[in-house]
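Batch job 17 of 40 flagged for manual review because the log was empty.
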Amino acid sequence: MGTRRARRPRNLTRELPPLPGDARIVHIAAEYWPFARTGGLAEAVRGLAEYQVAAGLPVTVIIPLHRYVRQRGTALAPVGEPFGFTIGDRWEEARLYRATGSEASPEVLFVEHPGYFDRPEIYGEGADYPDNARRFAFFSRAVLEALPRIAPDTGVLHAHDWHTALSIVYLRHTYAGLESYDRIGTVLSVHNAGFQGHFPFGLLAEVGLPASMYDWRLMEWYGHVNVLKGGLALCDMATTVSPTHAEELRTPAGGFGLQEQFTALGDRFVGLLNGIDDVFWNPATDPYLTVHFGPGDRSPKARCKAAVQRSYKLRQRKRVPLLAMSARLVEQKGIDLILGANALMEDDAQYIFLGIGEARYEEALAALAARAPDRIAVPRMFSEQAEHRLLAAADMLLMPSLYEPCGLTQMRAQRYGALPVVRSVGGLRDTVTDDVNGFMFDAYTPAALDVALRRAIECYHRCDDWEDKVGVAMRMDHGWGPSAEKYQAAYAQAHAARNGGR
């Protein structure tokens, strides 16, 4: 879930021009770090919104009031009275709360509905909750109902992934013709196009939309309703999380069946690379580390490595390369390549796999560790503290993804002096330059991974060459500044589309 931290000032690299009339940016998402998180979505929304506020822009973030929010002890204050609305054939009631205290910048609001969001998990327990479409439709409608009261100065509604795409559909259908809504520009960010919200035709009536939406130009997709497609059809601007991934999404091989929609958007669809929190992920100040280090003095990193070797009961060796993987253990992350590669058992190297996921992958990796317990560790757990310590200890990061829209771990690893070994896809291709600040391979095969691993390990033993590459990686700027400026340009284009260029 992430540890609690106070907001800290940013070193702003760019001034962000405000929207006309100082119009507000409203982010709507299913999760937001540190209140509720399953992966990179929560961190990406937080990073962008926090940078925008530090740059002086008016920003509000709205997420559901998940059980996680209260479990972590978040200080909440009610915002107005409960309110209701009709959705489909149901009358629903919602209530808003505001986060208070040191974490409440930017302003974060929560939509409460105990029946929908007071649950053990955000999306499902082992499988998706069967009423996810209804849950997130309610959330989208509740946000729109509340906007005139809580953020009457909204200029752009920034929706994230399929869970909030219906907010754009409702805005352009249910609320069409109402001036306060018509002037709101919309941006839809696709963080992971592999999840689109596919549901039967009956969903439309259930969430209060007409059958006319079941059209190939709107929400019909191979005999199903596709929620993400509906948002793409009606948004003013769409983004994804890296320039390379934007190109991939326009192809049959990488478009997840929506390549025609992404292509048809033309210049209304752009790839903007995510950033990382370069204050929180800083080996010079990281409170989780045994000892601090930086690009000017990397020698203390050896003590971090020794501490992690002890923690995971690996053999204490200074000059053996330590490779780390910190990821969900699922197909997307390239686990099949790792299991099929020869390098793990043949090469003189150590490996730590930090994460949980599918049982078949956890068990297969654990079997490898049982064969070489002094070289391979599979703790079958994940924590934020463990990830920080692991990246500070590692010489290399293993990230052979099947697809990776952006990826954040490779940027963190570079900052901590661990060179990524990655497949040339999505944001990995945009942040790793082969044989400069990491190592890259193309083919999705165990043999290609083997070649890349051997190149990396051979380089590790050429000390001067290796240290040069580590220095390049640690000095890279992965902050939000460049992308935040490009987001502001996308907002301006979306706002102008609804306000006659003003």
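Reviewer: the log was empty due to a logging misconfiguration, but the result itself is present. The chain has two domains: 22-275+481-498, 301-474. Unflagging and moving on to job 18.
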